[in-house]
Amino acid sequence: GLVLAGHRLPCWGSEALLQIAAGIEGHPDNVAPAIYGGIQLGIHTGTRWMTERAPHPSGMQAVLFIPDFVGKTSDARGVLNATITREEAAFNISRVA
Q1: Following CA atoms 72, 91, 20, 47 in sequence, which dihedral angle do they give, to the nearest 10 degrees?
Q2: Distance between terminal CA atoms of the chain?
Q3: Are 42 and 54 in contact (CB under 8 A)?
Q4: Dihedrals phi, psi of 43, to nearest 5 degrees
Q5: Are 28 and 36 in contact (CB under 8 A)?
Q6: How many CB atoms lie within 10 A of CB 87?
Q7: Pairwise CA distance, residues 56 & 38, whole Å
Q8: How far is CA 35 from the centre of its chain?
């Protein structure tokens, strides 16, 4: 949506668009692939979002599991053990690769 409305945003180029969109969503998980394409890994450095395209074999295919029920994101986040904050888990998993 931001790309389509880009003419109304105070930004120039994909880097600025990434910062705005990831700032709105709180993460670059969806916006980075939409802007740059491919599989993207993203982290927040404390001052800005950074993403990098992850190389993969040309024949690689995605396998998806789509449950036959709708679940709330808030319920899924509640599964995380209380000894690890969601922020700590997100920070750690974003640096695994």
Answers
A1: 150
A2: 29
A3: no
A4: -140, 160
A5: no
A6: 8
A7: 9
A8: 11
DSSP letters for 10-69: S--SHHHHHHHHHHHHTSSTTHHHHHH-S-EEEEE-SSSEEEEEPP--TT--------SS
Place of tokens 């995380």: 80
Q: Is 75 helix (H, G, I), strand (E, B) or coil?
A: helix
pTM, rounded to two decimals? 0.63
pLDDT per residue as tens digits for the range 8-55: 566 678 888 899 889 888 889 889 998 898 889 898 999 999 999 988
Tokens (6 digits) for 77: 């986040």
pLDDT at 69 over 70: yes
Supply the Cα-derived Rg of the chain in whole angstroms: 16
- Please give the DSSP secondary-structure letter assigned to residue 9: S
Instruction: Please tell me the distance from the alpha carbon of residue 22 to that of residue 33, in angstroms, as a whole number.
Output: 11
